[in-house]
Predict the structure.
Amino acid sequence: MTKEVNYRALSEELEEIVAALQQDDIDIDEAMVKYERGQELIGLLETYLKSSENKIEKLANLKG
């Protein structure tokens, strides 16, 4: 990733997508695009969390 990942921004975008997908009147084509973006966001968020977890473990090992 070339851009800095902002967890909060990614999470908020995912929440917006989930809300949009829960609407009864969403167009199927739009829903597919949003679903695919949602899957991408989930992957980015998981990567971000794993990276944060690794950093925390390294810091804990330095202290202990």
Q: What stands out?
A: The mean pLDDT is 91.
